[in-house]
Amino acid sequence: MPKIKVIDSPRGWFNDDEYDHLKKTVFKLIENKVVVRYHLIDDEIRLLITFMVNAFLRPSDIKNLRNRNIQIVDDEDTFLRIQTDSSKTINHPIVSMPAGVGIYRDIIKYQQNMNRPYRRDDFVFFPHLQNRDYALRTICRQFNEILSKSELKKSSSGQTRTIYSLRHTAIMLRLTKGDNIDLLTLARNSRTSVSMIERFYARPLNAEMNLDKLQSFRPKSNKNNVRKTTETEF
Q: Which terminal residue of the chain has fewer beta carbons within 10 Å of its beta carbon, N or C?
């Protein structure tokens, strides 16, 4: 059989400056009471954005995420344990970043302020929209408006950004800010594989992003017997 060459098209992600700009744009749109297709841009989409960057979830997971899928762990370690009803891949629990706990608690407060009392079976985001395909389209429309107003629809290398870029950002931030994070652990927690991270999520990763690790040296076990290494020897 002939082999068909597949060209990978990874979505863009947000670096620190772009992510900060994205969040500032959301605040401006909230202040200006911008409406997209009958739905006001408010704190719900802002919280959704930060939640996705701290929870490694896919948009399809967010669409069907219910309160009963989330457990708050706040002991020696602080994180959300997220076990969704189903998954695109292997359905095992996801561990969030510590900030995910505060964000989720803010989401609960937001829903209560909107006269939506906490119920375990309620959806976490846009619970008043029972048609979940419509709920996801609403989320995507609002996010696309935010991308447009922030002029971040395209990355500097020309990659298109969508709501899925938030998941890419979550993974890329671990690769660039994590302390020697294990790729297999990251892949398992993101419900993907190491090869998929290398092909898609980590495609923008370059040496300069981890310059401190690239230029680091192992500590000497015996300083008296081991000749000192200088930077000119590499």
A: N
Burial class (CB in 10 A: 0-12, 13-18, 19+), 190: buried
Nearest to 164 by CA among 30, 11, 2, 7: 11
pLDDT tens digits for range 87-141: 776 778 999 999 999 999 999 999 999 999 999 999 999 999 999 999 999 999 9
Q: What is the DSSP string of 68-101?
A: GGEEEEESSSEEEEE--S--SS----EE--THHH
- Determine the structural domain holding residue 27 and report its residue range: 16-205
Give Cβ neighbours of residue 155 (< 8 Å, ≥ 6 apart).
12, 13, 161, 204
Q: Give the count of domains, the chain.
A: 1
86 or 148, higher pLDDT: 148
Cα–Cα distance, 26 to 139 (Å, whole number): 13
Could you report the per-residue pLDDT of 25-34, keeping only the tens digit for each?
Answer: 999 999 999 9
Task: Report yes or no on 11 lying in a domain.
Answer: no
Whole-number mean pLDDT of the chain?
Answer: 86
Tokens 């993101």, located at residue:
190
Q: Is residue 1 domain-resident?
A: no
Query: Which value, to the nearest 10 degrees, does the dihedral of the CA atoms of residues 164, 103, 170, 217 take?
Result: 170
Cβ-proximal residues to 192 (8 Å cutoff; 6+ apart), any chain:
89, 201
Domain assignment of residue 211, yes or no? no
Is 195 a domain residue?
yes
Any idea what the CATH number is for the domain that residue 20 is in?
1.10.443.10
Tokens at 208, concatenated: 């300069």
Supply the pLDDT for residue 12.
84
